[in-house]
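Async update (no meeting this week)

Hi team, since we skipped the sync, here's where things stand on the single-chain job. The sequence we agreed to prioritize is pasted below, unchanged from the tracker. I ran it this morning and attached the output directly underneath so nobody has to dig for it. Comments welcome in thread, and please keep replies under the output.
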Amino acid sequence: MRYLHTMIRVGNLDRSTSFYQDILGFREIRRADYPDDKFTLVFLQAQGETDDVFGPMLELTYNYGVESYQVGDGYGHIALKVDSMTELQETIEQNGLAFSWGPGVTPDGRKKMAFLTDPDGYKIELIEYSSE
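Output:
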C-alpha cells in the first residue's frame, strides 16, 4: 500500500493553484479537464518530493460553477515540512498574507510551527525541522 494524494475541493481553480505554487512552492504535475462531467482536477506536488507521478500529491478539484464549500467539522489540516519558516513568512507577507497562527513552537518545544489558511479555508500546518 502506498499513499497517493489528498483531494480538496476549491471554488476558484486559478486562485488555489496560484496559492499552492506561488506561496508554498508546489509544482503542477498534471491537469485534467472533464467538461462532460463539469469538473477539473489539478495534481500538485510539494518541493522536495521526487518526480514520482504516483504521489504524494495534493489534488485540487474544481466543480464547474461551485464558488465555495463549507469546510467540515471533522477536517483537520494538511501538514508540510518547510526548510525556513523565516523565508516562508517573508514570501507570505510579500503576497499580502499572514499566518493564521504563529510562528511558534510545537507542543514538545523542539520545532518551529505555524498555520496558514488557503483561499478556500483549509488549514495548513507548517513545521520547520532544524535537523533530521
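Quick observations from my side:
The two ends are 25 Å apart (CA to CA).
Residues 1-66 form a domain with the 2,3-Dihydroxybiphenyl 1,2-Dioxygenase; domain 1 fold (CATH 3.10.180.10).
Reply here if anything looks off.
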